[in-house]
Specification:
Blueprint: H1 13-22, H2 27-44, H3 49-68, H4 73-76, H5 78-101, H6 107-123, H7 131-152, H8 189-194, H9 215-223, H10 232-250, H11 254-270
Helix pairs in contact: 1-2, 2-3, 2-6, 5-6, 5-10, 6-7, 9-11, 10-11
């Protein structure tokens, strides 16, 4: 791959850098990062000599990676690949969110939030993001910008969604199992210029999201004898959630596995997640 992206593709620089950082820690996610860069770059500029050189190097890298990952199901099955990338992105997001809410907002947390937002971009390879993931992406980008600005100005960032600290009588919209959230705005380009690629994979303790699992609702759904008419979309979504759970178990992420299984169960028994 070309060492430096041409000016026309500078918007993809951090996706490229993230892929390089993940080569050893998570080669599958690194592979899909580069697939995203390739597809996006082709839409932006596939004609200039600089871009063609860059794309040629990127293609060589992808071919090499595909051979090295020939025995990985995640590369050959897009559903499994999507599950893998999504789980990795959520792990980083959860790490950053937990650190922030604990009042430990550091530059590493900024990088984690921003990297998670980039990996949510990569997930668009597999189709349109769910509303839940889009909320997380907006929140991650906003949080990265907010914490970065606070640290740059010598201020102490307020943990969690700001609405929680402003006495807002209207609850902020939910972002899945992370509680209430504001609608964050996309960060300016200055943030991408200032933030380096992640230096290390998050090694925080397994995040606690038991509050999101709502076992009482799931139990009630199981006990219900009402037959729910499921659409094909419902069935496909339940199947995907089950595969996500299996993948999470393989990575010893039991919390995510439980969450996905609970959501699949609720969907199959009530028609809603």
């Amino acid at each position: 791959m070309a060492a430096v992206e041409p000016q026309t593709l500078r918007s993809l620089a951090h996706h490229v850098r993230t892929a390089a950082e993940l080569d050893k820690r998570d080669p599958v996610t690194a592979y899909y990062c580069r697939v995203f860069v390739m597809q996006t770059a082709m839409k932006i500029d596939s004609r200039s000599p600089e871009s063609r050189k860059f794309l040629g190097g990127l293609m060589d890298n992808l071919e090499k990676a595909k051979k090295e990952l020939a025995d990985r199901e995640e590369v050959h099955d897009e559903v499994v690949g999507q599950c893998h990338v999504e789980n990795y992105a959520l792990q980083i997001f959860i790490y950053a969110d937990n650190e922030d809410r604990a009042g430990r907002a550091t530059r590493a947390v900024v990088r984690a939030f921003y990297t998670a937002s980039l990996l949510f971009d990569v997930l668009s390879l597999f189709g349109e993001l769910s509303d839940e993931l889009m909320e997380k992406q907006r929140y991650a980008r906003w949080k990265a910008t907010y914490i970065h600005t606070c640290l740059k100005n010598g201020e102490t960032p307020i943990p969690g969604p700001l609405a929680e600290h402003k006495g807002d009588s209207n609850p902020a919209p939910s972002i899945g199992f992370f509680g209430s959230d504001t609608h964050p705005q996309t960060p300016g380009s200055h943030l991408a210029d200032d933030i380096a690629a992640p230096q290390a994979s998050p090694t925080a303790p397994t995040p606690s999201i038991h509050n999101s699992l709502a076992p009482s609702g799931a139990t009630a759904a199981v006990q219900s004898s009402t037959t729910v008419s499921l659409t094909q979309e419902n069935k496909n979504r339940a199947q995907r959630l089950a595969k996500f759970a299996v993948s999470a178990i393989e990575y010893d992420d039991m919390i995510t596995a439980q969450d996905n299984l609970q959501r699949a169960l609720r969907l199959l028994t009530t028609g809603q997640e």
